[in-house]
Amino acid sequence: MRKADIVTKVADLTGVPKVDVLVTLEAFFKEVKNSLKAGENVYVRGFGSFITKKRAQKVGRIIKRNQSIVIPEHYIPAFKPAKTFADAVKKGRPAGSPEPVDESDDDE
């Protein structure tokens, strides 16, 4: 599902014009980004948390030049789903995923 699909779906469910839904969605994304930049986590009850994770300093390699470089510690954005959200996803099989394979031997 793409952003345009989300906008269409929300507009259909709520009766709000697509333009207004798009503006609201973009504002939400912008606020999440700004909060994470400022070091604040964003908690959405029943959905999940947008958090920053600290990556420790490590040594990397530039293979083409056979050279080692130091990658400094840095923060990356991450999403941690709420328990109710994760449980709901576990119960339903996502569209497009392969059918479960029965591995029992019927030859015996």
How would you describe what is shown here?
With 108 residues, the chain is of the alpha+beta class. It has a domain at 1-38. The chain has helices at residues 3-14, 18-37, 83-91, and strands spanning 42-44, 48-55, 58-62, 67-71, 74-81. Helix 1 crosses helix 2. The radius of gyration is 21 Å and the shape is elongated. It starts with a helix and ends in a 17-residue tail after the last helix.
Task: Summarize, please.
With 108 residues, this protein is α+β, with helices and mostly antiparallel strands. The chain has 3 helices and 5 strands, in the order ααβββββα.
Number of distinct beta strands? 5
Quickly count the helices. Answer: 3
The SSE order reads HHEEEEEH
Strand content: 25-35%
Mean pLDDT: 89
Name the poorly predicted regions: none
Q: How far from one another are the termini? A: 44 Å
CA-atom Rg in angstroms? 21 Å
Overall geometry comes to: elongated
Structural class: alpha+beta
Largest beta sheet, briefly?
Answer: 3 strands, antiparallel
Helix content: 25-40%
Placed side by side, the strands forming the largest sheet appear as: 1-2-5
